[in-house]
Amino acid sequence: MEYEVVSVLVLAMLVWMGWIMGMERRQHGQLPPGPRCWPVVGNIFQLGRSPHESFTKLAHKHGPIMTIWLGSMCTVVISSSQVAREMFKRHDVVLAGRKIYEAMRGDHGSEGSLVTSQYNSHWRMLKRLCTTEFFVTSRLDAMRGVRAKCIHRMLHLIEQAGESGTRAVDVGRFFFLMDFNLIGNLIFSKDLLDSEMERGDKFYYHALKVMEYAGKPNVADFLPILKWFDPQGIRRKTQFHVNQAFDIAGSFIKERMENGHGGSKKSNDYLDVLLAYRGDGITEPYTFSSRTINVIIFEMFTAGTDTTTSTIEWAMTELLHNPRTLKKVQMELRNKIGRDRNMEETDIENLPYLQAVIKETLRLHPPLPLMVPHMAMESCNMLGYNIPKESQILVNVWAIGRDCTVWDAPLLFWPERFLEPNPLVDYKGRHFEFIPFGSGRRMCPAMPLASRVLPLALGSLLHSFDWVLPDGLKPEEMDMTEGLGITLRKAIPLKVIPVPYRGATIENA
Ligand code: HEM
């Protein structure tokens, strides 16, 4: 009997919610077209395991600007370069808000977070910090040695693990560890993953856990009534690991302050920059509280590691899958650099084919296929459709990069397309057919850093080693499946044998 009463109540609640949501949908006026949806759940069951692919298929039917209901969340999906141009050229400010998912929602709101901040004065202050301090050319130039050292050490570790060209290594893992250490060095001037740095290992563990939970689909994001219950525990678990990581970062900051830096002595690392801005953030609004500093540091790790790792792993995968392209890029590197020295960052400008390989990888495998969700801060009218206030905006850069009306043979890995006929197509947010870093105000602030690290790391891997598939695997037999977590990684990590090319053993940096 009790069971029946509960069932009736739940059913009544669902019908009521369905009715309310139906009302809501009707009130929104002329929304962009989209598939029919179910009460309460909307189109959730049409998303499948790869939402970017499902959205691409749906866009073929419903058009490049489309409404999808994720539970009660009105979502507008943009799938063509023309509509993306319209969004970023004419509605950039009003669509520059952020849709905040439960895993991203910290105990303290978006304090200190560039990624989850709404478009307001707090965001502008953080963005200015990125453009004038962290990713400005002068500082990037000054930190060139740090990048060279971290990449050189990665080559040394790969050579050791490959046992003189006899064992396959997980390239993505080596790059991830290098990148984590690189960001650690940019911020703290420390090797966090040093064998003696137990705290670094723990910080790494908690950062990985946060990325794991943030990449899981969460029903509470789509059915607001469930937010209070956090049914999958995603919010609770993410927050636990965030707090653990903050404690560790806090201990590094304390050490730096006790050692007398405290922002007074200018050094080149990001922590000194942040400490120079230290205050309570309230009485002097343009200063940062300790928590803000912690959040900024943590975000550098989470936003910066998986994205670049995904790109390097896919670049290596595509090259091994296309041996002629691999040979061509290696010829360019070896002809221009020779055998006797390491590749350096200043070589990049003389390596157009290597740069084209990076672009082609980002076209086919953008690490954030739907970018980071935007939100309409006010209602607006785009291309004759109403975009309601607080609706989520997803830009399907994966679909845009594979659009056959824009790209010849879009599924082919063919870096030459970026050399001829138009070598000027770049990822700086001006060419809307190719926006892996986004465009407009919310565009990735770290693009200048990534555009140095990616070609230097890939070029160094290809210059120092020949790469052989293990167990007689043929290029055409390679697994090319995508797996979606926080970024679009390979479903099965790439394992490949590094055969030293340059003769002399690579010394530890
Ligand atoms: C292959 C490398 C990378 C790619 C493709 C990439 C791509 C993106 C994209 C698509 C966005 C969202 C843009 C939007 O919402 O309109 C973004 C935002 C962001 N990225 Fe990157 N990113 C990369 C590397 C990095 C690195 C290395 C860092 C930091 C060290 C970083 C930090 C950030 C931050 C803080 C944001 C949030 C900006 C905001 O909300 O205003 N990214 N990135």
UniProtKB/TrEMBL annotation:
SUPFAM superfamilies: Cytochrome P450. The chain crosses the membrane at residues 6-23. InterPro entries: Cyt_P450, Cyt_P450_CS, Cyt_P450_E_grp-I, Cyt_P450_sf. Gene3D superfamilies: Cytochrome P450. Heme binds at C444. Keywords: Heme, Iron, Membrane, Metal-binding, Monooxygenase, Oxidoreductase, Transmembrane, Transmembrane helix. One of its GO terms (molecular function) is oxidoreductase activity, acting on paired donors, with incorporation or reduction of molecular oxygen. Its cofactor is heme. CDD domains: CYP76-like. Belongs to the cytochrome P450 family. PANTHER family: CYTOCHROME P450, FAMILY 76, SUBFAMILY C, POLYPEPTIDE 5-RELATED, CYTOCHROME P450, FAMILY 76, SUBFAMILY G, POLYPEPTIDE 1. This is Cytochrome P450. The lineage of its organism: Eukaryota, Viridiplantae, Streptophyta, Embryophyta, Tracheophyta.
